[in-house]
Amino acid sequence: MVKQNIPIYNVPSTGEGYSDEFDIKRLSYGHDRYEKTTAPHRHDHYTLIILCQGTTRQFIDFKEYEAKDAALLFMRPGQVHYEVDPGNAEMYLVTFKGDFLFSYSADNHWEQQFSSNLLSLKKHELERILAFVALIEEEYTLFKQNRAVVAQLLLALLEKTESYVSPHTHITGRKRYSTLMRQFIALVEKDFLSHTKVADYASKLFISAGHLNDVVKEMTGTNAKTVIDERRVLEAKRLLFWTQLPIREVGWKIGFEDPAYFTRFFKKHTGKLPASFQRDLQKKIHH
Fold first, then answer.
1. Which residue, 108, 109, 96, is CA-closest to 48?
2. Ranges for the HTH araC/xylS-type domain (predicted)?
3. Contact, 150 vs 140, CB < 8 A?
């Protein structure tokens, strides 16, 4: 049967009053399962895996990651994920919706570390992170209505993990996305399939297209149109690799009625024809 869609999983909340917005659990792989993770799927939430010991292999979008002993694995909403081999890992799984934190803090700089996927930790770094995890787990399991406390502790945990991530990535010190930039990215994530013009997003943000471009340029070094196009290209890549849809239908799903126009668009942004990308990535994965 032709696979046309990638299933989407939500937050498997177990705490009362959290409405599928937050969850934390310790997993001992080979024994525990919280979802069907061995088949490709997406998350509608942020995922932070804190590997305490052992080894695990996880595939995120188009790359396999092997984590050992002490490590962090980050996943953003929409990324395609599956377990290649859960191994003998002992880990904490922290899952949450962005709105769970935005309700308690207007500061969103924690999001930037989720542009990474894997970070190895030193033993003392893991120990410091686990101190925050213990507090969160206690509040979540014993005092189930303390949403604000859990959210603030989660923010503190992400502040700590960011301090370990930033020296290894492009995140520079305290440089943070502005509220406007965060709103733009959220709109792109929501509407990129139906709205492809900068003016569409500027109108929703009640600013000019020029102002939006200036903000995006300051925050990312690129322009707003590039952000929109890159999100469309990413979706095309995911569909080309993870489904068996014909190339023309992949183009249609991301807004191109003319297959030739989609092919030109894809090649412009990737340097490859859709069929070549699909073939080359399959070879890379299976060899």
1. 96
2. 182-280
3. yes
